[in-house]
Design goal:
This protein is an alpha/beta fold. It has two domains: 229 residues, Acetylglutamate kinase-like (Carbamate kinase), CATH 3.40.1160.10; 152 residues, 2-Layer Sandwich (VC0802-like). The chain contains 15 helices and 17 strands. Strands 3-5-2-1-8-10-11-9 form an eight-stranded mixed beta sheet, sandwiched between helices. A six-stranded antiparallel beta sheet has the order 13-14-12-15-17-16. Helix 1 crosses helix 6 and helix 2 runs antiparallel to helix 3. The protein is globular and about 75 Å long. The two termini are 39 Å apart. The mean pLDDT is 95. The structure holds aspartic acid and magnesium ion (MG). Aspartic acid binds next to loops.
Length: 468
């Protein structure tokens, strides 16, 4: 379908009856011009509520479970009453009751077993998206825009990495086209759940927290969409986090590569994996604010005309630096590195920065604080023998660090950028602990002491003239 527009609405953009009305209005307006499919997140905070409920179930806290389910029911029923005309409310309320009963059934199982099996978690948390898709589709129909809620478990086929699954594009393409193209051809607007999918044999999965952006890009690629618009609650991709840097500006255009790096290094507007499915077909993306739809937003493209050096700086405060060093010259540092990275990969840990230097082969990697325990465990078991026999020094962990990343395709081949960045940071008397820059020169990642992180971000933003 060559003029198809896919739009994704995030949690705050569907967070209340009023926000759902705005989202549906945007969708209907575009649909008057061309075919549209939308992908929706759960209402804001619902995924957290669902996960909290499952943890309570696992812990045997039945009262907590019931209190949370009551909140879940009340929020959706209240939204239903506020959103829909009276004649549609009963039908929608039945749909809500059905989905909540399904959630309760799964949570009840966890309560009984004192266990949270990952595949059941995925089935249960996707109910947040199924609830919002149901309400929005009902509203669109009530407003005269034919629409149908579609559970992505029917059309997005993934591997079996529960909680952080990856799509299998071939079967996803076949299934999503078979299910959605007939709807589109009949003028029906599909309202697809973000975040979830299922394995080829039908076991429910999710794509990781914040994964609805990724769902939207997967479907855009599968349907050969002309464009993807991602609606959030900020004006677009910015040169820095405006809470840290008041002079930060919205970037009108960024490349796929820049956007992916910014997302990966802490900019919250886009899920880091969003852009990958779009690259092959070069589908352009807009990041837009549903609270200010008249603003232009950021356009994300394969490449942009004039490359302009360092474009944006991001930071991550909740990170930890893990260092390893062989204690015996008999042990090759490269070998230990390979084993360590392999162990982290198997444990599904995201290595944010990796750096190695010096004759003694000390090397370090930066991980998210949430993944520290898992990382340490993976390394300790992979290197158990070496650690026990003192071939490797005990694993060192520094949590008093922060990551700052400077991104811009235009830094390539331009001498002086790194020098200016380091000088700006040192002028603030902030200690630099580790540095990494790949040969693509797209990103300079700098690990600094945690208490100097904000200062360093502001200094780099000013030094590189990013606010202009
Ligand atoms: N609802 C899911 C989450 O909160 C997915 C998303 O919003 O993108 O992680
Ligand atoms: Mg979200």
């Amino acid at each position: 379908m060559n003029d198809l527009l896919v739009m994704k609405f995030g949690g705050t953009s569907v967070g209340s009856a009023e926000r759902m009305r705005v989202a549906a209005g945007i969708a209907a307006e575009q649909k008057a011009r061309r075919p549209v499919a939308i992908v929706v997140s759960a209402m804001s905070k619902i995924t957290d509520l669902l996960l909290d409920t499952l943890r309570r179930a696992e812990a045997g806290d039945q009262a907590g479970l019931e209190a949370n389910v009551a909140k879940l029911r009340e929020r959706h029923l209240a939204t239903c009453r506020e959103l829909l005309p009276p004649e549609r409310q009963e039908g929608a309320a039945e749909g809500i009751a059905y989905l909540i009963a399904e959630f309760q059934r799964i949570a009840g199982g966890m309560l009984m077993l004192n266990e949270m099996p990952p595949r059941s978690v995925d089935e249960a948390v996707a109910i947040g998206e199924r609830l919002s898709a149901l309400l929005i589709a009902q509203y669109l129909n009530a407003q005269g825009t034919p629409a149908e809620a579609v559970n992505a478990a029917e059309i997005v086929v993934t591997d079996a990495v529960f909680g952080n699954a990856s799509p299998l594009m071939e079967p996803t393409r076949a299934k999503s086209r078979a299910r959605l193209l007939p709807l589109l051809e009949h003028g029906i607007l599909p309202v697809v759940t973000g975040f979830n999918g299922a394995t080829a044999d039908g076991r429910p999965t999710t794509l990781g927290r914040g994964g609805s952006d990724f769902s939207a890009s997967i479907l855009s690629a599968a349907l050969d969409a002309a464009e993807l618009w991602i609606w959030t609650d900020v004006d677009g991709i910015m040169s820095a986090d405006p809470r840290l840097v008041p002079s930060a500006v919205v970037l009108h255009e960024v490349t796929y590569a820049e956007a992916a790096e910014l997302a990966y290094n802490g900019a919250k507007v886009l899920h880091p994996r969003t852009l990958a499915p779009l690259i092959e077909k070069q589908i352009p993306v807009w990041s837009k604010n549903s609270f200010a739809p008249e603003k232009p937003g950021t356009r994300i493209l394969p490449s942009i005309g004039a490359a302009t050096g360092a474009r944006a700086v991001t930071s991550l405060a909740r990170v930890a630096l893990i260092s390893l060093q062989p204690a015996s010259p008999e042990l090759s540092g490269a070998h230990v590195m390979a084993r360590a990275l392999d162990a982290l990969d198997r444990a599904n840990v995201e290595v944010l920065v990796f750096s190695s230097s010096s004759y003694r082969q000390n090397f370090c990697f930066l991980v998210r604080t949430e993944e520290l325990a898992k990382s340490r465990q993976a390394l300790e078991s992979a290197l158990a023998l070496e650690l026990a026999h003192d071939y490797v020094y005990p694993i060192q962990v520094d949590e008093q660090v922060g990551l700052l990343a400077v991104v811009g395709e235009g830094m390539q081949g331009k001498p002086g950028t790194a020098g200016r960045i380091f000088t700006a940071i040192s002028r603030e008397k902030v200690n630099i602990i580790a540095i990494a820059q790949g040969s693509s020169e797209l990103t300079i990642a700098i690990v600094v002491s945690r208490d100097g992180l904000e200062k360093a971000v502001r200094a780099v933003h000013a030094e590189c003239g990013m606010g202009q």
